[in-house]
Records
---
Amino acid sequence: MSAQPVCLVIGAGAGIGGTVGKRFAREGYHAVLCRRSDGAGLAKLVEAIEGEGGQASGFLMNAIEDSAIEDRVAHVEAEIGPIEVVIYNLGAQIGNRALSDTSDKAFEMGWRLATFGLFRLAKAVCPLMVDRGRGTMIVTSATAAVRGNAGQHSHAAAMGGRRLLCQTLNAELSPKNIHVAHVVVDGSVDAPDTLGRMLGPERFQALRETKGAEDGLMLPERIADTYWHIAQQHRSVWTHELDVRSFSDLPWWNH
Amino acid sequence: MSAQPVCLVIGAGAGIGGTVGKRFAREGYHAVLCRRSDGAGLAKLVEAIEGEGGQASGFLMNAIEDSAIEDRVAHVEAEIGPIEVVIYNLGAQIGNRALSDTSDKAFEMGWRLATFGLFRLAKAVCPLMVDRGRGTMIVTSATAAVRGNAGQHSHAAAMGGRRLLCQTLNAELSPKNIHVAHVVVDGSVDAPDTLGRMLGPERFQALRETKGAEDGLMLPERIADTYWHIAQQHRSVWTHELDVRSFSDLPWWNH
Amino acid sequence: MSAQPVCLVIGAGAGIGGTVGKRFAREGYHAVLCRRSDGAGLAKLVEAIEGEGGQASGFLMNAIEDSAIEDRVAHVEAEIGPIEVVIYNLGAQIGNRALSDTSDKAFEMGWRLATFGLFRLAKAVCPLMVDRGRGTMIVTSATAAVRGNAGQHSHAAAMGGRRLLCQTLNAELSPKNIHVAHVVVDGSVDAPDTLGRMLGPERFQALRETKGAEDGLMLPERIADTYWHIAQQHRSVWTHELDVRSFSDLPWWNH
Amino acid sequence: MSAQPVCLVIGAGAGIGGTVGKRFAREGYHAVLCRRSDGAGLAKLVEAIEGEGGQASGFLMNAIEDSAIEDRVAHVEAEIGPIEVVIYNLGAQIGNRALSDTSDKAFEMGWRLATFGLFRLAKAVCPLMVDRGRGTMIVTSATAAVRGNAGQHSHAAAMGGRRLLCQTLNAELSPKNIHVAHVVVDGSVDAPDTLGRMLGPERFQALRETKGAEDGLMLPERIADTYWHIAQQHRSVWTHELDVRSFSDLPWWNH
């Protein structure tokens, strides 16, 4: 068992998830990092944290498998320590697809990743937090949680559900001293794993430069600052929802 | 084949769904009424419409069964006539339940009824409408589509997804001359089948009277007026979202 | 005194205002049409209504002048008849202007037209409606009421205030059987007086044609259908807010 | 001239405004504190900051007077230093009043304090920030900016305008490296000057205790933490809007 409180990250790639985990490790948490694939990348992330003197564990996990989330939570609580902070960072963006090109399976997958997975996580971890009388759950969300653009049938339906689920969780859990926050990431993140892979190296680098010098894409390290702040907010002034975007981007409501 | 255009109602009980079907039948549509159970009630509704000189067909259908929606659409198009208007009226309210009392199954069921069913319906019927160059889809929605209250984990997640799905459908289909409307029914409907059964006859009658004489609960006949208006709107002035509630009720944002 | 109920229109030009007045006149109301300038156009509108067998009166009125609204309401009630429906249709769009090009005066003017005028109207007419136990107030609004775009400092601040004022009016008046509705006109209206004048005849005609044949701009006659429907809604199913736009336009949240 | 950057606070009472000023002073800013009255309280606040080794100046200022804001900005820039951060913290809550009890003057006063004052401040200070290529403007806002409750005619209209003005300011200024943030303070602040005076000492103390021990009211010191965080956000991840409330309070959308 770790003497440190645990920060569990579901969806810990090289973008927001892993970077937030690293930040919490730097602040004294044991970062438990879960991602679906790329064991090598995961190992590298754990090493990087340990190299800084932090504590971390990494697990490959397919969140949509039966009981994968539930078992991971139970294992972490039993073997590592009490989960004080949980970051839900699974995305479900599949790019724009016309209705006829959006299969039932893709639509369901969006829901399993973006909505149902969060519900299962909340059911697994929140009762433990309630028993301990405290906890923090930060949910990474997206523009698609607040508007449905063309081609986003799967993603917007899933994220719209996620957003309202965050509200129902907050309504039940906030009076029990559990802070639930929904972060609308309204723009492109400088994430080689997801956006970088989707665009390919050349277009990704071009986008980085077009959007405004070195910081037109959202920098995960700086998003992590805000996640850390949310987790530090005094309970008399909790934020439930906030947006983040680059200075050089238009907010979703302006375009 | 009917000489009349078809208005297909998914969720045609004695509240909004059946009443809207009756209204469209009165205006010259062949009402195709689908509901999960109560064949006797369904037959009675069909008879009532026919007794007024209208055309109607009734089908028992469990919308969450594989291909139930898709088969029904195909059958109606083949045997009755082109679906010009479709009303999606399936609810997923299960009352307030704490997180620990909301099973995975209940959560999934909410999504299957409120979100996935609409997606499947849209996939089945909208390509036909696109081919014909016109169509109308009106989706009954609820307060839970715009805010997540305590105990509404399943319902709000499902309805929040439904709302944004309506937006993505609208974004793709409106330029193709298909009108998609999302109706936020923000209050209690005078529906013996659903609210009445949930409350029991005495509490139901008491609520009817408490809320302000004979019209404190929302009258389905009068909701049908607005559905009919939406379907009649000229395409230069389509409404995508509107709310409806009783004069004696507070809007969701005021309480 | 007129035997007919009065529909008072504040902002009765050749677009939405005048057309809604005409529609209510056709349905048996005495239309009282107020606009700031163009007495000839106003006289023509009154004649057109009377030529159809309807009743109408026209008044030039500068709504921002002290007591102009209050006096008009008092006069109408004393000389013509009880105001059963009031349409507030004053716009405050001045085109996009940078902060440095938006004078204090322009900013204040926006508020006087879009927000304060509505407040004054409500103070003048609603107590009379409360005494009579019924009434309808329909407020034309704009995209700028729900989002603040670049260059819209004056307009968006004024319309954002107007929208929330409609909510506070509704909260107080709805239980007293007065229907307050806020209509988000989310697009360009085929209005020669305002848009036509702003663009000039050639660009206006080009826009009409570009946006999709004869009905890409919103047709005032068809907007009037929806205003009429709102005024006819049964009080058990009142709509407070709805949007309208052309099928060929993107909703504000999609662009 | 101060060697330190200036944080200008408009509305620097003993609640959020003064406390935020103190916090920025502690972080190395020269706090310029403006409030309408209570010169003794203001002097005490300046002394407290200086007693901690910080820099501060206090000015009595009636923001609604002609050129009061503009002159103050010019004076600060000329005599103290460049304004890097500005906090707009003027409230306009006058308690719930029926329409008939809300005078034209009270309605206008709400707008002058909550909307027009912010516009004037932005016109005075933002061009200077644009010239310097950076700046931060944080606007304290309220529940009334997002919904209009009964009795809030003046407040909600003013705050609804303020919110959309923040959006238009952000749309123009964000690309110029000026961070505009709108903070929805959704609950009661532990502010003796405003809430305390409105309630009287006994009811105020009772509320403090009722809401959940020592921290049911929002603690200004802790709100200041979030204001400081906003001002520190990297420009690739700016927040435009966030809410804050006590764990023991319901969010505005839940009640």
---
Amino acid sequence: MQEKHKQQPVDAVKLDRLAQIAVKTGLGLQKGQNIVVTAPVEALPLLRRIACHAYRAGANLFTPLLADEELTLLRLREAPETSFDHAAGWLYQGMAAAYAQGAARLAIVGENPMLLANEDAGKVARLNKATSLAYKPALEKISNFDINWNIIAYPGLAWARLVFPNLAENEAVYRLAEAIFAASRADREDPLAAWAEHNAALRRRSDWLDTENFAALHFKGKGTDLQIGLAEGHKWSGGASQAKNGIICNPNIPTEEVFTTPHAYKVEGIVQSTKPLAHHGSLIENICVRFKGGQIIEAKAGKGEAVFNRILESDAGARRLGEVALVPHSSPISASGLLFYNTLFDENAACHIALGQCYSKCLKGGAHLSKEEIAARGGNSSLVHVDWMIGGGDTDIDGIKQDGSLVPVFRKGEWVSA
Amino acid sequence: MQEKHKQQPVDAVKLDRLAQIAVKTGLGLQKGQNIVVTAPVEALPLLRRIACHAYRAGANLFTPLLADEELTLLRLREAPETSFDHAAGWLYQGMAAAYAQGAARLAIVGENPMLLANEDAGKVARLNKATSLAYKPALEKISNFDINWNIIAYPGLAWARLVFPNLAENEAVYRLAEAIFAASRADREDPLAAWAEHNAALRRRSDWLDTENFAALHFKGKGTDLQIGLAEGHKWSGGASQAKNGIICNPNIPTEEVFTTPHAYKVEGIVQSTKPLAHHGSLIENICVRFKGGQIIEAKAGKGEAVFNRILESDAGARRLGEVALVPHSSPISASGLLFYNTLFDENAACHIALGQCYSKCLKGGAHLSKEEIAARGGNSSLVHVDWMIGGGDTDIDGIKQDGSLVPVFRKGEWVSA
């Protein structure tokens, strides 16, 4: 490998800690378990450290599926028209089979968030839809939390240049790496202990929200006056949780949110985005939508409106909510002041909502509910799941109890109770 | 990709021609066809050019499966004992499904031939066996020639250093690239025309051999006195041929051989290897074996004997022949004087035989024969197919006709007839 001879502008000790976090805290990998990993080629230095920690933790098979962004661009620019409505179904079905047989799922992200910004939006949308459709059986095993899974980030060069446009390449990669390490607690001497402590704090929040058992949340802020009904028998999640295979894992590294399933038909009012949304290589800014009966009936965006409308047109569920998440304005990622152009990070800087597919684990007894039962409780279903940020320093949230009484939850972007 | 900013010590024009050869001559890719490609990460510059030519030729889906040698080493060194008897069956089954649905198969090779030389031979053998077993359904579609397929090479750094141990890294890669380009006819102004001409020459050889319809070939040379019975209704192949899906392709780039299926039970005598055999990262030299009733009953090797014995112990068919191939000593690859440590090249420098699985396409009506019918004709069956070189400048070959009369085929390593 020629890469071996190239100095990576990334702290090797912290990179190794990040790999350890992915395997131990992220996946909670079990001895003898198989792992399927997707990663951009550029993330090989992290992938190799993860493989090492995974094998040492007793991983049986470690199967990498490496992606190259240049090949994606070549497809969009050179492939015949017929290509864009197809996907390699055999590969996605295989992944679903691997998960059904007990494999864990790890995704390393680090791609150029703007890769597709100048490509044909129609082709991109068709390609994404065909891929989503092929991927659905595998994605359902993840969104239903059948297996332990984890997403973690590596500082790719194009991503680093986007976040730090005024720095030299090596400096930008170094700075993004440090930001990833800090947000992922890989800068701590004992990162696993730091994660145990953080998970306990998130658990206290979600336990309190479960005890309150709100019927709805009312968000108020600049340009936002939105009431979000919560699904019947909803349950709050955050940090570590137990997959249906019994394994406790942290699906997202980093994570600062507690979140639950809204009622797909009980969302009313207007809401405005507070941070840009980087979606499949396009940037969508200043989203402003109106909900009625849970459905988006008006949508505007200051930038990327066509892309946003394409998301809404993906299927019937794309106009309804699948997630609502609470993140204090003082979260470390928000405090970093950086815009990461990546939902994994940016969603942990602010309260957010997601259009599309809900998480069944955010319903009591969700592990054993049929699709019909989930829908009956208000859980949304869709091929997409797109998070966007609606919280900021001026966000107030009230919880509306089942008897209609109000409980202050957030004031000026921060938790009211401890 | 950081690679973009690194000067590749490889001629870009010839690399692009090699990609064109892979798509047009190698695969004979059809409009609307899908392709599955395996490649080492290092071969991305060639993979991208191939994707471009494939899409322009009308490829529908181009699915790359990228491998990283460091991950292979990490597995051998860090994975638990239980790992080595398993393989990602879902991935190999998926590949078989893709081929069954009409996808073409492209393999880019360029790995370090000595990667596994210092690893635990027992683990390597178990890993190879588990992988072969999982891969068998997919491999059978290739060895049965159900689909169009092609193998082509990229000059990886570790490979280049092995072939040119006394040159600086960039110089070694450049020289190996030039050797690959020359052997693959990517150094010609019109490479597709050059391949058409070469394929016609190979066709004349195989047509003559088919007309002669020899019962056996008798090889004589230094340390070799071997009679190889040919399968009943055998057929000679070489260069371009038609897969069962009707597509004409060149499975190997480069290729200088004509080859057929021996009779698995009619091989008698002794034979000595004339070039080293690089097998799964180990080097096997000076092989000397005795056949009786088609089976190897004595085997020695000057170097790598344990690895060679492990091949023989793979299964019952590993001790019998699946292929015999004729290559003149004056072939361009032989004339280059290089040892490539890679069968794709080295087998085209000399007459060779292969232990293990036969090609059903080298039997008349082979496309429609059952496994039992292939066996009844003398076609061998095995999980392995391992070529090794037995020809040189002193090789004489006689064809033995069905009536027992002799026809000179090779004298002093060269074809006797035109």
